[in-house]
Amino acid sequence: MRRLRACLGAAAAVTLAAAGTTALVASNASGATTALGNRWYAAAPYLMPLDNDPPDPSAIMDATGLKAFQLAFILAPNGGGCSPTWGGTASVSSDTAVQSMISTIRAKGGDVSVSIGGYGGTKLGQACADAAATAAAYQQVITKYGLHAIDFDLEEPEYENTAAVKNEIGAAKILQQNNPGLYVSVTTAGTADGTGWFGKQMLLEAKSQGFTPNNFSIMPFDGGFNGAASQTSALTNFNSILQSTFGWDQATAYAHEGFSGMNGRSDTGEIFTQADFQTVLDYATSHNMDRFTFWSLNRDRQCNPPDNGGRTSGTCSSVAQNSWDFAKYSVKFAGVTPPTTTPTPTPTPTSCKTAWSASSVYTAGNEVSYGRHNWKAKWWTQNEVPGASEWGPWQDEGAC
């Protein structure tokens, strides 16, 4: 999964697509006609629409007042090429499933942003020949779904590839120019001092290209963080980096700064509770930061049975909560008071599948049980423990 791939070259069709990338976002199959205010796109939490037991966005909207969702992730095809897919497998051009979800959200007065990149898979910046070809691939996504917002999630291993980052930043600049009013966020790794060496190199690339997005967001988790105090400290340090890189004053830097957290138990075992989110939210609003989001709505529900932080799951938070508790902090950042809701009843566990075996070979769709949860194989696997990694071969289907 975490491997660099050589650029695959640009076909004539890609060159032609790059030459005319102005989007007609007001008329498309998903029915987008009116953008939300940018504050909603800045508050949109991440949601995987095709993986990790996708929640019903309508239910989240009704329970919390949330209007915007950050759908993830757009990648290059697993088999190679410079065309957009969901997760490397589902072509954007032929998609109907995500489009249906977007239409449902818009019918209720909401909207979506789409995130490109993420942690796993091959990114289009790695696979496409240059910035123009990369932008042409992303323009297909903007046009298909009539987008008013897009997020560039630049992290490992892509942001360690100078050519790939140059392509992504160049593509972001092209899209910004060719889609007037497009809200653009750039998300990257967070460290105690703000962001690491590769994150700083990405900022310098943006400066060299004269590209300024609506915000640069850091992800202060999976790096030795411990609660909100360590996160707000990283945000303060990142603000200083933005000042020194772009020559901004403190207020301007905060106006171009964002936070992207992880609710509950992180991949490395850090715990971020609702109280931590409130503290960071207070910091973000008091400093007039541009963005407050988190990974992810798929995880914004209590594990069943509750595991008290014992493991990291892609489908639950591993902390005590009512469903969609963390989404309400995004709603607050957007300037709206969430409705009062009653706690979500704990569902009755289903029966367990056959126990997972380290010696058995499993293929996509096979189901097993492990750790009192049922799991479904995403692809061929052997001797890979279910739940060991959110990006591993097993999808958590819930308690049993």
Quick synopsis:
The chain is α/β, with parallel strands linked by helices and 400 residues long. It has helices at 12-19, 38-43, 57-64, 97-107, 124-127, 131-145, 162-178, 197-209, 228-246, 250-255, 274-286, 327-333, and strands spanning 46-47, 68-75, 85-86, 90-91, 111-117, 149-153, 183-189, 215-219, 257-262, 264-265, 271-272, 291-295, 361-362, 367-370, 373-377, 381-382, 394-399.
Notes on the structure:
It is a single chain. With 400 residues, the protein is of the alpha/beta class. It is 32% helix and 18% strand. α1 packs across α6. The two termini are 29 Å apart.
What is the C-alpha radius of gyration, as a whole number of Å?
A: 20 Å
Distance between the termini: 29 Å
Question: How do the SSEs run, as a string of H and E?
Answer: HHEHEEEHEHHEHEHEHHEEEHEHEEEEE
Give the overall form. Answer: globular
Main sheet: strands, sense, barrel: 10 strands, mixed
Uncertain regions spanning at least 5 consecutive residues: 1-29, 343-347
Strand share of the residues? Answer: 15-25%
| Helical/strand content category | alpha/beta
Helix content: 25-40%
Number of strands: 17
Per DSSP, the total helix count is 12
Overall pLDDT score: 89
